[in-house]
Amino acid sequence: MNILLVYPSRLDSCGRLVKYRQAFLPPLALAILTALTPPPHAVRVVNDLVEEIDFAADVDLVGISIMTSQAERGYRIADRFRKRGVKVVIGGIHASCRPEEARRHASAVVIGEAETTWPKVLVDAETGRLQPYYQADGWADLSRSPGPDFSKFRLDVYASTPFSRFPIMMPVFTTRGCPYGCRFCSVTRFFGSRYRTKPVAQVVAEILSIGAPEYFFVDDNLTCQPEYARELFAALEGLKREGKGIRFFSQVSTRILLHTDLIDRAARAGCSGLFIGIESIEERNLSAMGKTFNRVVDYEELFSRLQGAGISPHPSIIFGFDSDTPAQFGRTFDFLVRTRVGGASFWLLTPLPGTDLFEEMERDGRLLEGQRWSSYDMDHVVFRPRNFTPDDLYQRFWAHCRRFHSWKNTLRRIGFKVAMSRNPLKTAVNQAILGYRFRLAILAGDNPFSCGFGRYLADGEGGQSKSAGLLTETPGRFRTWV
Ligand code: SF4
Hints:
Blueprint: E1 2-7, E2 18-23, H1 28-35, E3 42-47, E4 61-65, H2 71-83, E5 87-91, H3 93-97, H4 99-103, E6 108-111, H5 118-126, E7 133-135, E8 170-172, E9 175-176, H6 187-191, E10 196-197, H7 200-210, E11 214-217, H8 226-241, E12 247-252, H9 261-269, E13 271-279, H10 283-288, H11 296-308, E14 312-319, H12 327-338, E15 345-348, H13 356-363, H14 390-404, H15 407-419, H16 424-443, E16 452-457
Parallel strand pairs: 1-3, 1-4, 4-5, 5-6, 6-7, 8-11, 11-12, 12-13, 13-14, 14-15
Antiparallel strand pairs: 2-16, 9-10
Helix pairs in contact: 7-8, 8-9, 15-16
Iron/sulfur cluster binds near residues 180, 182, 185 and 253.
């Protein structure tokens, strides 16, 4: 079969298609699907964020992976192919949480992980016996999960560092699952509460096969199982001794402080930065979200230890919790400056389908009516906050983002990173380029970590772009909940 795998973009508040000049990371889910699709099937991969979809292409099957903010665009793509009689299969976290909704736009819906479902989908599609739903049978055995195959990707559409033929980072994963089940997060429901690990030798082989210098381990918590993390870091350190060392970025929880040796081991293995879901500097918010293992009192020590080891802490912070007040923005900004963090991500609290928070807000009538799934991107307000109007929260959030990414603070943050770098010149150049791009993205009302750089709007149907230019929407000029 000719198979087209699509990573959909999303729509703006007026239903127009959002596109980017460069994407941030190649979508790992499609690289895994590619690896799960054996010859003689022919696979093509399209990242709708930055590439055009050929709706007239000669394809037998279209596979679309969606998270909630991509759902509307994904459904439009599916509808257009199905109109031509092409079979469409939709999967991903959103489709797994709302399979009946996805089924209205798809020939079949995959619920759960692809490793245990996609091979059967291929057989059934080829023999004309596609079933409406494919429910994963338990959780995938990661030792049998194939390494990501990026051979069908156009890597030139991703942001890269100067003189590199690879994107800034190539995504890989080593573990799945999370035992904590925080109320705003769907990871535990989608990937299970049991922490599963991929054999370290397999991870190393995947890295060597990809051959890039920088990676993003997209694991939700790379160090959840300390023994596994030690083994992984030792193997990566071994690669370094052989002259095949890599640099990597990943995500950990604050519990890494319970095993501080992991910080030094990660640094020796090539870790340059760690994304940490601190979520809030207000204990009551953490408690309300069931993330009680985060202790605000530990944050400074954690950041300081990471910085001492040469790892840049990258806290991820959410605004809009019920205990947040307008003062929270200023307090958070001061905290980030005081702790000398080189970068941070900010999000608006979003009750994503598949989470306890969504069910609770739906039950309590707090979800704003008339919201599109595209607005569930963590950059928009889709519920009634406790201590703000939706508009007020939205405006304050983006004002905070602009302040954090102001030229003055960007220069200050570059200084923090350069001060702890082993290669100050390279760090200064790369961070200056990134800082500039992040600043432009934020000014355009866009979160660069979500999608990419250089946003513009297309016609919403995947045709040629009608408008190009960076600043097509600004946070101050529209309100998505109207
Ligand atoms: S927020 Fe992090 S710790 Fe909490 S459930 Fe999600 S992945 Fe696990």
